[in-house]
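Q: Given only this backbone (266 positions), what sequence would you predict?
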């Protein structure tokens, strides 16, 4: 009797047949978070990487870049944006593994919407990245970061960071659906992770080579980082805030279109 029950038992973190979209999404968020906690190497990387990057740029490179000792105030928003990309990159591999490993086909056999699996991956990534952002801010404060933002500027800065995390996560989910294998999914998003290095994230834009400045100014990370930096410094971000939010909205829309086109075909 117990053996038969074990054979017919519903797998852990799989929604009941007929579950609604909200219930299924909640179950899949739990599934993705459970997998993250079980992935010891990935969990360690998520904790260690933000700390190492902050120490690298402030302690190792900070003195060479800025002589006044306040480079930590300049670079912290860039580290937040950079870590968001690294944190979201695992979504491409996770989504592709579900698609190529047969899990998505099993989810489609349930009456619950299989698209909730993608929602689970995206939402879990957002939660992980928010934790990484808090970790970066904590380390930055220990290293001397002193934000001057008031309550509304903090809310605006967190909103911009959240919008970027959602945007880059949706893009990596789309990459996971486009790739043919987890290995290729991991490689396709590599270029996205280099965008912060070609922006104002780590050095002022006018210190870049003249031929590179137009390209650096025209990509999303520059207005995003400038807006977060101004808000945390207690300054008016001006038009950079609007540009940053427009970039995030456009990236989410493009990623969602790719997901809507590709998901039914996988």
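A: Predicted residues:
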């Amino acid at each position: 009797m117990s053996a038969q029950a074990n054979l017919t038992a519903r797998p852990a973190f799989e929604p009941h047949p007929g579950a609604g979209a909200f219930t299924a999404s909640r179950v899949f968020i739990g599934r993705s978070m459970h997998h993250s906690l079980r992935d010891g190497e990935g969990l360690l990387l998520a904790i260690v990487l933000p700390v190492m990057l902050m120490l690298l740029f402030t302690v190792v490179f900070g003195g060479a870049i800025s002589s006044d000792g306040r480079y930590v105030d300049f670079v912290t928003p860039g580290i937040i944006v950079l870590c968001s990309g690294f944190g979201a990159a695992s979504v491409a591999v996770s989504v592709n593994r579900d698609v190529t490993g047969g899990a998505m086909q099993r989810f489609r056999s349930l009456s619950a919407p299989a698209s909730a699996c993608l929602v689970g991956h995206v939402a879990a990534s957002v939660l992980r990245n928010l934790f990484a952002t808090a970790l970066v801010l904590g380390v930055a404060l220990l290293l001397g970061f002193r934000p001057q933002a008031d309550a509304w500027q903090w809310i605006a800065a967190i909103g911009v960071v959240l919008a970027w995390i959602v945007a880059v996560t949706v893009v990596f989910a789309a990459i996971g659906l486009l790739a043919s294998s987890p290995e290729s999914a991991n490689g396709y998003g590599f270029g996205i992770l280099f965008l912060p290095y070609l922006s104002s994230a780590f050095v002022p834009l006018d210190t870049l080579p003249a031929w590179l400045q137009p390209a650096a100014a025209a990509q999303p990370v520059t207005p995003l980082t400038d807006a977060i930096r101004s808000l945390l410094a207690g300054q008016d971000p001006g038009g950079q805030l609007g540009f940053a939010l427009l970039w995030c909205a456009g990236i989410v829309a493009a990623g969602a279109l790719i997901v809507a086109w590709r998901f039914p075909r996988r």
